[in-house]
Design goal:
The complex is a heterotrimer of chains A (284), B (339) and C (281). Chain B is mostly helical and 339 residues long. In chain B, 78% of the residues lie in helices and 1% in strands. Chain B has a domain of 209 residues: MetI-like fold. The longest helix of chain C is centred in the last third of the chain and has 38 residues. Chain C starts with a helix and ends in a 7-residue tail after the last helix. Classes of the chains: A alpha/beta (284), B mainly alpha (339), C mainly alpha (281).
Chain lengths: 284, 339, 281
C-alpha cells in the first residue's frame, strides 16, 4: 500500500474506438479517489460515464485507452494482461447496470460468487464457504441453500445482491458501480444504495458510483464529478455542489431533479433549458 | 418437468405416426399394380397374388392402413423382393453401420468446429467473416458424393494411405454383435480389427463431415460472439478471469444449448448425406442397401429404409430436446413456467 | 491499422465474389440455352473405340465408358439441371406459400392441424423423403421434380407462416385493421407481400440446394432415365472407374459444384442486398 497518495489517480484519460480516426469517446478526464472515499460520476446518458468506468480496468476490448490510470501506485494503462487481471476483482471490482444480465444464466450462483477466489487459488471448499458468507452478509436469505440455485430463481433486487457478493468477495479496495440501480424498482433501489454505503463504511471500501440520477448522489457520495460530452466539467464536494453549482450544465442537472418542495404546477426544467439560459445571457 | 417430458415424448410418438402415415401414402404413389412391385421383377402370378394378400391390397383403404400400422407395431417393415427376407432383418444389419458413420462424422465435426468457431469469435474481424461465409457456401455447394469420390481417388487410390472401400479388410471383420464395427472389434478384444475398422471409417467420415463443418463453425462463431458480448461475460472479465476460463467456464456452457440445436438439425441432413457417402465407399449400410434396392426396383425395401430413417431422426430430435432441458436452466425454467 | 486494411480488402473481396457469382450464373443460363449447339461431339452417340479416353486434344474432358464425349454431355445436361432445379424451387415455394396463406386465413384449429402436418413432413431429412417418393414413382426426371417439391415445400410453408404470424401482429397491420380494412384484405395487401419478401431472398440459396439434392438422387439411381445426360447420373457412372479413369466422375461433379456454389453465392449476395433484416457487416 502506498502511503499518502490517492488510491486511484486518473490523469488525462482518453478513450477512442480502436482503429478509427473518429472522435474520442472520452477526453482529458482527470480525477482521484482516496481510500474509502465515495465519488459519484454523474452525467446524462451518452456523456461517457460508463466508458470511463470500463476504461479503468480496460474491460472493453474494442476501445483504445490512453492517459494514465494509477491504482495503488501502479500504472494500469499499458499494463501486462496478467497484472491487469490481478487488479480486476481483487483490487478494483465492478458491478453493472442490469443484474438480470450480469449473471451467467447457466452457472450456479455459488460458482459465480466464489469465482474471484477460485481463480486466485483459494481451495474450492474454502472459496464456497466465503462465498456463502458474503451472500449472507449482503442479505441473501437462506444463502447456504439458495447459492445452489441458478440466477433465474432470483428476483432483480436479489440478483444485484448476488452480483455485489461476487464483486466484493475478492476483497477489492475500490468498487466501481455502473448505474447499479437504474434497472431496479424504486424500493429496491434504496436497499441496494444502502447496501453499497454500508459495505463501504464497514470495509473501508472506496466507491466510484456512476449515475445519471443526482437524486441518489446526495446521501451516498462524498464528492461529485460532473461529466458532459466526454469531458469533466467540475468536481466538488457534494454539499458544495448542491448549494452552489458553478457550471451551468450542473445547474441544469440539479434543476431537472424533481423536488418535493417545488411549487405546485411548476414546470420541471430540462438541462437544455439551463444551457439555453447561459447561451442567451452570453448573447446579451 | 415431468409434464413437459411426457408432452415432448407424446409429440414424438405423434410425429412417428405421421411419418409412418406418409410412408403408407407413398406406397399409394406406386404407378400400376403395387403387388407386382412388391413381389419383385421375376415374380410368378402366384407370388404376385401372395403379395397382394400379404399387403391386403384387395381390401378397403382404411383396412389396409390399419393392417399396415398393426404390422409396424410388431416390427414388420415389409418384405424385400430382392433379398427375399423381411426388410426389418436387412436393416438390423445395415442401420448400425450407417449410425456409426454418422456418429463418427458428428464427433469429428464437433471436435473441429467448436474450437475453430470459438477462435474465430475471439479474433473476430471482417476478413475472417468473409472467409467463413465463403467456406460455408462452398461447403453447402459441394455434392458430398463427389467430394467422397475425390477423397477416395486422392487418399486411397493415388496416395494409398487408406483402404479404398468396404467396412473391413479381408479376414478382419469383427464378429457381429451390434453391427457397428468399432464397437464389435472392441468387444472382440482385437486391436488389429479396431484399427482396421477405424482406417475404413476415416475417409467416409471426413467426406461426410466436410459440408457440415462449415455450417457448424459459422453457427458456433456467431453464438460465441453473442455470448462474449453479454454483460455476464464482461462481469466475468471484471472478476479477473483469463480468456481461457471465460471461454471454457462461461461462454461454452452458455453456447452449448443453441449449438446442440444446430447439431440436432444437422443430424438429419447428415443421415441423408451418409446414404450417398456409403454408396461411394461401398460400406454395407443403409445407403448401400437403398442403392441396391433402387437398382432392383425393390420399392418396399426402399420405403422401409425411408421409414426407419424418418423415425430415427424424430427420436434424435427428442433426445436433443431432453438433453437440452437437462443442461440448460433457462430452458428448464421456461418450460416450468409454461407447464 | 492492419485490421482496417484487411477489412477493406475483405469488403472488396466480397464484392468481387458477388460479381463472379453473377457472371457464373449468367454463363450457366447462356449454356442452358445454347449448350447443345456448342457441343463438339454428339453427346449420345456411343462408340466403343473411343471408350474411357483421358482428357486431351480430341476430347477436352475425356470420354466415358461408352465412348461419349464428357464435355458434350455436360453441355447437353446444363439445361435439364437448371430447369429441374428452378422448377423445383419455384413450385415448392408456390405450394409452401399457398399452404401457409391458407393456414393463416383458417380458423385457429385448422391452422394448427395444417402446421402439424407440415411438421410431419419436416420430420424427414429432405433427401430421404425425396428418395422415398421418387423411388415409389419410378425413375424419371418428372418423378424427381415431384419428389423434390414434396420434400421442399414444408420448409417454405413453415418460413412463410412464421413471418406471417409476425407481420399480422405488427402495428401497421393493426393500424390498417383499425381503419376498417377487412381481415382478408389486410392479409392480401399487407401480410402476404411482406411474407413473400422473406421468400424471394431465399430463392438463390434454394436453387443451390436443389441442384445438389437432385444430383444426389440421381447418384443413388433415382433420376433421369439413361441415356440422358444428367450430371448426377454421370458421376454415378464414373464411380466404378475411380481407380482407372478419374475424369469420368470428376468433371460432372465439378460442374455440379460450380453451379451450386455460383447460385449459392448469388443467392447470398442477393440476400445481403435485399433483405433489410440481414445486417451487413
Amino acid at each position: 500500500m502506498s502511503a499518502g497518495g490517492p488510491l486511484l489517480e486518473v490523469r488525462d484519460l482518453a478513450v477512442r474506438v480502436r482503429e478509427s480516426e473518429g472522435p474520442r469517446l472520452v477526453r482529458d478526464v482527470s480525477f482521484e479517489i482516496a481510500a474509502g472515499e465515495r465519488l459519484a460520476l454523474v452525467g446524462e446518458s451518452g456523456s461517457g460515464k460508463s466508458t470511463v468506468a470500463k476504461a479503468l480496468v480496460q474491460l472493453d476490448r474494442t476501445v483504445e485507452v490512453s492517459g494514465s490510470v494509477r491504482f495503488d501506485g501502479r500504472e494500469l494503462v499499458g499494463a501486462r494482461p496478467g497484472d491487469l487481471r490481478r487488479v480486476r476483482g481483487s483490487g478494483i471490482a465492478m458491478i453493472f447496470q442490469d443484474p438480470m444480465t450480469a449473471l451467467n444464466p447457466v452457472r450456479r450462483v455459488l460458482d459465480q460468487v466464489a469465482e474471484p477466489l477460485v481463480i486466485r487459488g483459494v481451495p474450492r471448499r474454502e472459496a464456497r464457504r466465503l462465498a456463502v458468507a458474503m451472500l449472507d452478509r449482503l442479505g441473501v436469505a437462506d444463502a447456504a441453500r439458495r447459492a445452489h440455485d441458478y440466477p433465474t430463481a432470483f428476483s432483480g433486487g436479489m440478483r444485484q445482491r448476488v452480483v455485489m457478493a461476487a464483486a466484493l468477495v475478492g476483497g477489492p479496495r475500490l468498487l466501481v458501480a455502473d448505474e447499479p440501480t437504474t434497472a431496479l424498482d424504486v424500493r429496491v433501489q434504496e436497499q441496494v444504495l444502502d447496501l453499497i454505503e454500508e459495505q463501504s463504511r464497514e470495509l473501508g471500501l472506496a466507491v466510484l458510483l456512476i449515475t445519471h440520477d443526482l437524486g441518489i448522489v446526495a446521501g451516498l457520495a462524498d464528492r461529485v464529478a460532473v461529466m458532459r460530452s466526454g469531458a469533466l466539467v467540475e468536481t466538488r464536494p457534494v454539499d458544495e455542489l448542491f448549494a452552489d453549482p458553478h457550471h451551468p450544465y450542473t445547474r441544469g442537472l440539479l434543476e431537472s431533479v424533481p423536488r418535493i418542495d417545488a411549487a405546485p404546477g411548476q414546470r420541471l426544467r430540462t438541462v437544455a433549458d439551463a444551457v439555453d439560459d447561459t447561451r442567451e445571457s452570453a448573447d446579451a | 418437468m415431468t409434464r413437459f417430458v411426457l408432452r415432448r415424448v407424446g409429440l414424438a410418438v405423434l410425429t412417428v405416426w405421421g411419418v409412418a402415415t406418409l410412408v403408407f401414402l407413398m406406397t399409394k404413389l406406386i404407378p400400376g399394380d403395387a403387388a407386382r412391385v412388391a413381389a419383385g421383377r421375376t415374380a410368378t402370378a402366384e407370388q404376385i397374388e401372395a403379395a397382394r394378400q400379404r399387403l391386403g391390397l384387395d381390401r378397403p383403404m382404411v383396412e389396409q392402413y390399419l393392417h399396415y400400422l398393426g404390422g409396424l407395431l410388431h416390427g414388420d417393415l415389409g418384405w424385400s423382393a430382392s433379398t427375399k427376407q423381411p426388410v426389418a432383418v436387412d436393416l438390423q444389419v445395415a442401420f448400425p453401420v450407417t449410425l456409426q458413420l454418422v456418429l463418427v462424422a458428428m464427433v469429428f465435426t464437433v471436435v473441429v468446429a467448436i474450437p475453430l468457431g470459438t477462435f474465430a469469435a475471439l479474433r473476430h474481424g471482417s476478413a475472417a467473416d468473409a472467409a467463413t461465409r465463403l467456406v460455408a457456401i462452398l461447403g453447402g455447394g459441394v455434392p458430398v458424393f463427389w467430394l467422397a469420390l475425390v477423397l477416395q481417388w486422392l487418399f486411397a487410390v493415388r496416395l494409398g494411405w487408406t483402404p479404398i472401400s468396404g467396412a473391413n479388410g479381408y479376414g478382419l471383420d469383427p464378429p457381429v454383435v451390434t453391427g457397428a464395427t468399432l464397437v464389435d472389434s472392441l468387444l472382440a478384444g482385437s486391436p488389429q480389427m479396431f484399427a482396421d475398422s477405424a482406417a475404413h471409417l476415416v475417409l467416409p467420415a471426413l467426406a461426410l463431415s466436410a459440408p457440415f463443418l462449415a455450417v457448424v463453425v459459422r453457427n458456433v462463431r456467431s453464438t460465441m460472439l453473442g455470448v462474449l458480448g453479454t454483460d455476464y461475460a464482461s462481469f466475468a472479465v471484471a472478476k479477473g478471469v483469463t480468456t481461457w476460463r471465460l471461454v471454457v467456464r462461461h461462454a461454452l456452457p452458455a453456447a452449448a444449448s443453441s449449438t446442440l440445436t444446430i447439431l440436432g438439425m444437422q443430424l438429419g441432413f447428415m443421415l441423408g448425406a451418409a446414404l450417398l457417402v456409403e454408396a461411394v465407399f461401398a460400406m454395407p449400410g443403409l445407403g448401400t442397401y437403398l442403392y441396391t434396392a433402387i437398382l432392383n426396383q425393390d420399392t418396399f425395401a426402399v420405403l422401409g429404409g425411408v421409414l426407419v430413417t424418418g423415425a430415427v431422426f424424430v427420436l434424435a430430435g427428442l433426445v436433443v430436446d431432453l438433453i437440452q432441458m437437462a443442461i440448460d436452466p433457462r430452458v428448464r425454467s421456461s418450460h416450468l413456467a409454461h407447464a | 491499422m492492419l485490421a482496417r486494411g484487411s477489412r477493406r480488402l475483405a469488403g472488396r473481396r466480397a464484392g468481387a465474389l458477388d460479381v463472379l457469382a453473377t457472371v457464373l450464373v449468367l454463363v450457366l443460363l447462356v449454356l442452358a440455352a445454347v449448350g447443345p449447339w456448342l457441343a463438339p461431339h454428339d453427346p449420345y452417340r456411343a462408340d466403343p473405340a473411343t471408350a474411357l479416353l483421358p482428357p486431351g486434344a480430341g476430347h477436352l474432358l475425356g470420354t466415358d465408358d461408352s465412348g461419349r464425349d464428357i464435355l458434350s454431355r455436360l453441355l447437353a445436361g446444363t439445361r435439364a439441371t437448371l430447369l429441374s432445379s428452378v422448377a423445383v424451387v419455384v413450385l415448392s415455394a408456390a405450394v409452401g406459400a399457398a399452404v401457409a396463406t391458407l393456414a393463416a386465413a383458417s380458423p385457429r384449429w385448422l391452422d394448427e392441424v395444417i402446421m402439424r402436418v407440415v411438421d410431419m413432413f419436416l420430420a424427414f431429412p429432405s433427401m430421404v423423403l425425396a428418395l422415398g417418393v421418387a423411388a415409389a414413382l419410378g425413375p424419371s426426371l418428372t418423378s424427381v421434380v415431384v419428389a423434390m417439391v414434396i420434400a421442399m415445400w414444408p420448409a417454405t410453408a413453415r418460413l412463410v407462416r412464421s413471418v406471417m404470424r409476425e407481420t399480422m401482429a405488427a402495428q401497421y397491420v393493426e393500424a390498417a385493421r383499425l381503419t376498417g380494412m377487412s381481415r382478408r384484405r389486410a392479409m392480401l395487401r399487407h401480410v402476404l407481400p411482406n411474407s413473400l419478401d422473406s421468400l424471394y431472398v431465399q430463392l438463390g440459396l434454394d436453387v443451390s440446394g436443389a441442384i445438389v439434392l437432385i444430383a444426389g438422387l440421381a447418384f443413388l439411381g433415382v433420376g433421369a432415365a439413361p441415356p440422358s445426360a444428367d450430371w448426377g447420373s454421370m458421376v454415378a457412372a464414373g464411380r466404378e472407374y475411380v481407380t482407372t479413369a478419374w475424369w469420368v466422375a470428376f468433371f460432372p461433379g465439378a460442374a455440379i459444384t460450380v453451379a451450386a456454389v455460383a447460385f449459392g453465392l448469388f443467392g447470398d449476395a442477393l440476400r445481403t442486398r435485399l433483405d433489410p433484416t440481414v445486417v451487413r457487416g
